[in-house]
Write a structure and sequence with these properties.
238 residues, globular, binds zinc ion, eight-stranded parallel sheet, binds D-xylitol-5-phosphate, alpha/beta
């Protein structure tokens, strides 16, 4: 019998929101958000500087939904405690910044945080697979990290398929997240490939009515939930 897919989740990325009205925007989409994705950039790992713990604290006061902090920072180990204190629920670190992420995971767990691993487009997903048993989230990036509003890189879909197969093979409770350039169309392609969580900044907060946009994503997720996983074909990607 074909494996049944878990219901997908929408994670609006606050990077796409009007920062002058951040709390208001978050509350607007809260009922449609399974969690909020918070893009933290330090100006080193990626050129921009975006959100730090001060803003995470403000988000914490604005919503009771989980806050997932995507740390696009060079030295995640040194930063995690500040995010935990600010009210983050989980931290995602980049394999490119933490090639040996065990210490980062241990620190995050000791602070009661969930943990995840992100792979940038040039990084083979196979590099992340040895850590699947240690993480809650595997984030396959479908744009190069650093900016919202970029175009989805469809060549990343085989990485999602490969990760899905490994997660299913191990019977693991890992959320497979797709992050970057997600629209209703590219989101569909990612769900087809086996993603569980859609991160979306521009396609939610960049729309005139973010709540309606988030609702459309959930309609898509509901329509596709609990369907047999598609057959997989082709050679395994690196
Ligand atoms: C990019 C970030 C993404 C970004 C997504 O570095 O990790 O989470 O906010 O933005 P959109 O959905 O506009 O591609
Ligand atoms: Zn992100």
């Amino acid at each position: 019998m074909a494996a049944m897919r878990r219901a997908g989740k929408l994670a609006p990325s606050v990077l796409g929101a009007d920062f002058g009205r951040l709390a208001e925007r978050v509350r607007q989409v809260e009922s449609e958000a399974a969690l909020f994705h918070v893009d933290v950039m330090d100006g080193h790992f990626v050129p921009p500087i975006t959100i730090g713990p001060v803003v995470v604290r403000a988000l914490r006061a604005a919503t009771s939904r989980p806050l997932e902090c995507h740390l696009m920072v060079e030295r995640p180990l040194e930063q995690i405690e500040q995010f935990a204190e600010a009210g983050a629920d989980s931290v995602l670190v980049h394999l490119e910044a933490a090639p040996d992420p065990g210490a980062v995971f241990a620190k995050a767990r000791s602070l009661g945080l969930g943990v995840g691993l992100c792979v940038s487009p040039p990084t083979p997903v196979t590099d992340a697979l040895p850590f699947l048993e240690s993480i809650d989230v595997l984030n396959v990036m479908t744009v190069n990290p650093g900016w919202a509003g970029q175009t989805f890189i469809a060549e990343m879909l085989p990485k999602i398929r490969r990760a899905r197969a490994e997660i299913d093979r191990g019977g693991l409770a890992v959320d497979l997240t797709v992050d970057g350039g997600v629209t209703l169309d590219t989101g569909c392609a990612a769900l087809d490939a086996g993603a569980d969580v859609l991160v979306a900044a521009t396609s939610v907060f960049g729309r005139p009515d973010p709540a309606a946009a988030a609702r459309e994503f959930n309609e898509l997720l509901r329509a596709r939930g609990e369907r047999p996983s598609p057959a997989r074909s082709g050679p395994p990607p690196r």
